[in-house]
Design brief:
The complex is a heterodimer of chains A (617) and B (155). By secondary structure, chain A is an alpha+beta fold. Among the domains of chain A are: 242 residues, Beta-Lactamase, CATH 3.30.450; 167 residues, Heat Shock Protein 90 (2-Layer Sandwich), CATH 3.30.565. Helices cover 52% and strands 20% of the residues of chain A. Chain A contains 13 helices and 17 strands. In chain A, strands 11, 12, 13, 14, 15, 16 and 17 form a seven-stranded mixed sheet that branches. A five-stranded antiparallel sheet of chain A has the order 2-1-5-4-3, sandwiched between helices. Chain A is rod-shaped, with a radius of gyration of 71 Å. Chain B has a single domain, classed as Response regulator (Rossmann fold, 3-Layer(aba) Sandwich), CATH 3.40.50. In chain B, 38% of the residues lie in helices and 14% in strands. Chain B has five helices and five strands, in the order E-H-E-H-E-H-E-H-E-H. A five-stranded parallel sheet of chain B has the order 2-1-3-4-5, sandwiched between helices. In chain B, helix 1 links the parallel strand 1 and strand 2. The longest helix of chain B has 18 residues. Chain B is globular, with a radius of gyration of 14 Å. In chain B, 39% of the residues are buried. Classes of the chains: A alpha+beta (617), B alpha/beta (155). At the A-B interface, helix 7 and helix 8 of A face helix 1 and helix 5 of B.
Chain lengths: 617, 155
C-alpha cells in the first residue's frame, strides 16, 4: 500500500469520525428540538388554560367588587344599567354584564336594551344560587351573534346569606381566543377551545366553519379528556389535516369541562427541526471537507512529496547517477534529518567511489602496461624462436652439407686424419641441430596454450611405456606400477612429462640388470597429489641436484649417456605451468627418484565418472 | 629470349640454392631449374613484368618456394600466385628450414600444394629435394598451359 493511500485512509478516518459524532449529535439535537417543540406545544396549551383561569378569577373578583357597589343595590333599573354600561366600557372583553334577580329575571343590563329575559333555566344561574361556591361558569353560544362566550355568574348574598342577585359577565371567548392565537409558537399552529361535551367553542385561526361542531367522536376528544400522562398526541386528523395536539383542562372549573387545544402540523414541526439539522449537517460537511483538504495538503506537501523526492534520489543514485542528491532538506524534523543524512551518505559514497575509480583506473593502467610489456616480451621470444628455427638451422645445414660434399669430392685424396676432421665437423653440426630442435620444442611448449581436461594417469603411463618399447627391447626391466588416480591437466604435456621421466629412468638404468622402475603415488602435499618415478639406475650426487632442471644442464658425460639436457627442464616447465613443483632424490649408483605434484580431480567429477563407468558395465 | 624452365626455385640463400641444385642434378633436372633470389623477382617472372616482360608464354611445372626472404616473403608470393586465375594452377611447394605452426597453417590456408621442411642431415636434405623435384617435374602430370619437357631448349 502506498504512503499516499495510507495517509488518505488516516485522514479519512480522522475527519470521518468527528463528522459522524457531530452528525449523531445533530440528529439527537433534532430529536431534542422535536421534543422541545412538543413540550412548547403543551406549555402553550397550559399557559392559555392558566390565563383563561386567571381571567375567570379576575372576573370573579370584579363580580365581588360589583356586588358591593351601592349602584347595584338599587331598584332603579336605568341607573344600574348605566352603571354597568360604564363598567363594561372599562372591560371590553365582555360582551355584556348584567344582574339577575333571584327569581330569574334580567334586571340591570349593560346593553340597556330594555329587553325582558327570564333566565331561571340557565345552568350557571341555578348553580350560582344553589352551590356553596358563588361562582359558576358555563360556555355558550350567543343566540344572535353565534359566537362563543363564557358565562361567568356570581351569586351576591346578603348578610344573612339570602341571595340578593346574580351577577353575570359574558366573556367574549371568540375575541379572547383570537388574541391568544396571535402568540402561538408557530404560524401553522391552531388553538381551539372545547367544552366538556366535545363541542368546539372557538378555533383560530380561520375557524368559522368548525365553530360549534362536535369532536366528541375524535381521538382528540378522548386524548383531551384522558391524556394518560402524555403531553402531546400525534397524528390526529381534524378538518382534513393531521396534527400533533396538546391539551390542557381547567380543573378548577370541572362543571364547564373546558379544554384548551393547541395543534401544529407535524410536517411543519419536523420541517423546522429538519431544516436546522440540514443546516448543521451542511456546515459539518463543509468543515469536514476543509479539514480533509487541509490535512491532505499538509500530508501531500509535507510527507508524500518529500518521500517521493527521497525515493527518486535514491533510485537515481542506485541507478548509477552518483551526482544525485535530495537537496534542500524539507520539512524540518525527522524527514528533513533523513534527507540531510542520506545526502551526506551519498556524498561519502560518491567520494569513496571516486577514490575506487581512481584506484581502478590506476590498476587498469598498470595491468595494461604489464600486459603490453608481457606481450612485447612474448613477441620478442616468438621472433627469437622463429629466427632461431630459420636462421640458425640454415648455416648448420650448410656446414654439414658442404662438409659432406667436400668428403664426396675429395674422398680419394683426403688422409684418414682429414676425413675424421670432416666427420667431426658433420657431427658437431648434427649435435647443434639437435640442441636447436630441443630448445625450440622447449620454447614452443612454454608458449603453447594449455587445454586442461581430466587425465587418467594409469592409461597415460601404459601409453608412454608402449612408446618406449623399441628402446627397451632386449633389456631386463622390472616395472612396478601402482594404481594411479586421474588428475586435471593438459594431456599432451603430461604425456611429455612421463615420456621424459621414463626415458631418463630407462637411460640411466642401462648398466643395471635387472633394472627396476617404479611409478606411484606418495600421498598429498598442499592438497595436491605427489607422484613419483623411481629407478635403481646410476643416480647422481645430491649436491648437483639444483642444476638438474636447468636447460641444457647435464650431470653425466655425453659419451656415457646421450642427451642434450632439455628433458628435465621441460618436465619442470610443464609441472610449473600446472601449478605444481618437481624435485628429485638420488644416491649415486643406487638410483634416483623424481617427484612432482598434480591437481587431483574433484571427487564430484570422479563420482560422475565412476557412475558412468558402472552404467557402461 | 629468356629461357623457359620447368622448375622455378625461389631461394635467397645461395648455399641452399647450390645444395638444391646439387640434389636436382642427380635426376638431370639441374638444367630445368631457374633460380630466382627473392619474392619480388619471382612475382616479376610469373607476371612477366620488369626484366621478364619479354618472356614467352607457359607456366613452370612447379615452384619451389622458400619462406624467409628479403623484400617479398614466400607466403606473399604464394598468396599472389593462388589468387591470380592464370597462375593459381601452378603447383607450389614450400621448402623451409623450420616447421613453424603458424607458417604451416598460413601456407595451407593459402592453398600450398606441399610443405617440406629441409632436413638437417645433408643426405636427408639431398634425398628430399631429389624426391620433390622428381615428383613434381617428372611424375606429376602438370596442369594445361605448363611448359612441356619437349619445349626445353636443346632438345
Amino acid at each position: 500500500m502506498s504512503i499516499r493511500a495510507r495517509l488518505l485512509l488516516l485522514i479519512l478516518f480522522a475527519t470521518l469520525i468527528p463528522a459522524l459524532v457531530g452528525g449523531m449529535q445533530f440528529l439527537e439535537r433534532r430529536d431534542a428540538e422535536i421534543a422541545a417543540a412538543q413540550r412548547d406545544l403543551a406549555a402553550t396549551a397550559q399557559r392559555v388554560a392558566r390565563v383563561l383561569r386567571d381571567t375567570v378569577r379576575a372576573t370573579a373578583q370584579l363580580h365581588y367588587g360589583l356586588s358591593r357597589a351601592r349602584d347595584l343595590d338599587t331598584q332603579d333599573k336605568a341607573a344600574c344599567s348605566a352603571f354597568l354600561a360604564d363598567v363594561l366600557k372599562e372591560h371590553p372583553q365582555y360582551t355584556g354584564i348584567l344582574t339577575i334577580t333571584p327569581k330569574g329575571d334580567l334586571f340591570c343590563d349593560s346593553l340597556r336594551t330594555g329587553r325582558a329575559l327570564h333566565l331561571t333555566d340557565r345552568r350557571y344561574f341555578q348553580q350560582a344560587l344553589t352551590s356553596e361556591n358563588p361562582l359558576a361558569i358555563e360556555p355558550a353560544f350567543g343566540r344572535l351573534t353565534g359566537i362563543a362566550v363564557l358565562q361567568i355568574a356570581y351569586a351576591a348574598r346578603g348578610e344573612t346569606g339570602e341571595p340578593r342577585f346574580v351577577l353575570l359577565a359574558s366573556l367574549n371567548l371568540e375575541k379572547y381566543m383570537q388574541l391568544r392565537a396571535t402568540s402561538l409558537p408557530r404560524k401553522t399552529a391552531v388553538i381551539a377551545l372545547m367544552d366538556g361535551k366535545g363541542t368546539l367553542l372557538t378555533w383560530h385561526p380561520d375557524g368559522e366553519k368548525l365553530r360549534g361542531t362536535s369532536i366528541a367522536d375524535s381521538p382528540l376528544f378522548r386524548f383531551a379528556r384522558e391524556p394518560h400522562g402524555e403531553e402531546v398526541r400525534e397524528d390526529i386528523e381534524l378538518g382534513g389535516q393531521f396534527r400533533i395536539w396538546a391539551a390542557s383542562a381547567l380543573p378548577e372549573f370541572p362543571e364547564a369541562g373546558l379544554h384548551v387545544l393547541v395543534g401544529v402540523s407535524k410536517k411543519d414541526l419536523l420541517a423546522a427541526a429538519n431544516r436546522n439539522l440540514g443546516q448543521a449537517l451542511s456546515i459539518l460537511a463543509i468543515v469536514s471537507l476543509l479539514v480533509f483538504a487541509g490535512a491532505w495538503a499538509l500530508v501531500e506537501l509535507g510527507i508524500r512529496r518529500q518521500a517521493a523526492r527521497i525515493i527518486a534520489a535514491v533510485a537515481r543514485f542506485s541507478g548509477g547517477d552518483f551526482g544525485a542528491r535530495i537537496g534542500n532538506p524539507y520539512p524540518r524534523g525527522e524527514i528533513g534529518d533523513l534527507m540531510a543524512a542520506l545526502d551526506h551518505a551519498f556524498e561519502l559514497m560518491q567520494a569513496q567511489r571516486d577514490v575506487i575509480q581512481g584506484l581502478n583506473a590506476d590498476l587498469e593502467r598498470r595491468v595494461a602496461e604489464r600486459t603490453a610489456q608481457l606481450e612485447a616480451a612474448n613477441e620478442e621470444l616468438e621472433s627469437l624462436s622463429y629466427s632461431v628455427s630459420h636462421d640458425l638451422r640454415a648455416p648448420l645445414r650448410h656446414v654439414q652439407g658442404y662438409a659432406e660434399m667436400l668428403g664426396e669430392d675429395a674422398e680419394s685424396t683426403l688422409s684418414p686424419e682429414s676425413r675424421r676432421y670432416l666427420e667431426v665437423i658433420a657431427g658437431a653440426g648434427r649435435e647443434m641441430g639437435e640442441l636447436i630442435d630441443d630448445l625450440l620444442s622447449f620454447l614452443r611448449m612454454s608458449r603453447a596454450e594449455m587445454h586442461e581436461t581430466q587425465v587418467d594417469l594409469g592409461a597415460l603411463v601404459q601409453n608412454s611405456i608402449r612408446d618406449l618399447e623399441t628402446s627397451t627391447r632386449g633389456r631386463n626391466i622390472g616395472w612396478t606400477i601402482a594404481p594411479l588416480p586421474s588428475v586435471t591437466g593438459d594431456r599432451a604435456m603430461l604425456k611429455q612429462v612421463f615420456a621424459n621421466l621414463l626415458g631418463n629412468a630407462m637411460k640411466y638404468t642401462r648398466p643395471k640388470d635387472p633394472a627396476a622402475i617404479e611409478i606411484g603415488c606418495a600421498g598429498e602435499e598442499d592438497g595436491r597429489l605427489v607422484l613419483f618415478v623411481r629407478d635403481n639406475g646410476v643416480g647422481f650426487d645430491m649436491k648437483y641436484a639444483d642444476k638438474l632442471f636447468g636447460v641444457f644442464q647435464r650431470l653425466h658425460r655425453a659419451d656415457q649417456f646421450e642427451g642434450t639436457g632439455i628433458g628435465l627442464a621441460n618436465v619442470r616447465r610443464i609441472i610449473a605451468r600446472h601449478g605444481g613443483r618437481v624435485w628429485a632424490k638420488a644416491v649415486p649408483d643406487q638410483g634416483a627418484a623424481f617427484y612432482f605434484t598434480l591437481k587431483r580431480v574433484k571427487s564430484e567429477e570422479l563420482r560422475v565418472k565412476s557412475e558412468k563407468h558402472e552404467q557402461a558395465v | 629470349m629468356l629461357s623457359l624452365k620447368r622448375i622455378l626455385l625461389v631461394e635467397d640463400n645461395p648455399r641452399d640454392a647450390e645444395l638444391a641444385l646439387h640434389a636436382l642434378a642427380a635426376h638431370n633436372l639441374a638444367n630445368e631449374v631457374l633460380h630466382l633470389h627473392d619474392g619480388a623477382e619471382a612475382l616479376d617472372y610469373l607476371y612477366r613484368r620488369g626484366e621478364f616482360s619479354g618472356r614467352v608464354n607457359g607456366n613452370p611445372a612447379v615452384v619451389l618456394l622458400d619462406l624467409k626472404m628479403p623484400k617479398v616473403d614466400g607466403l606473399e608470393v604464394l598468396r599472389q600466385i593462388k589468387s591470380e586465375p592464370t597462375l593459381s594452377t601452378i603447383p607450389v611447394v614450400v621448402m623451409t628450414s623450420s616447421r613453424e605452426d603458424r607458417d604451416l597453417q598460413a601456407a595451407y590456408r593459402l592453398g600450398v600444394n606441399a610443405y617440406v621442411v629441409k632436413p638437417m642431415k645433408f643426405k636427408d636434405f639431398i634425398d628430399a629435394v631429389k624426391q620433390v623435384g622428381a615428383f613434381w617435374a617428372i611424375l606429376n602430370e602438370a596442369p594445361p598451359g605448363t611448359v612441356s619437357r619437349d619445349d626445353r631448349p636443346g632438345t
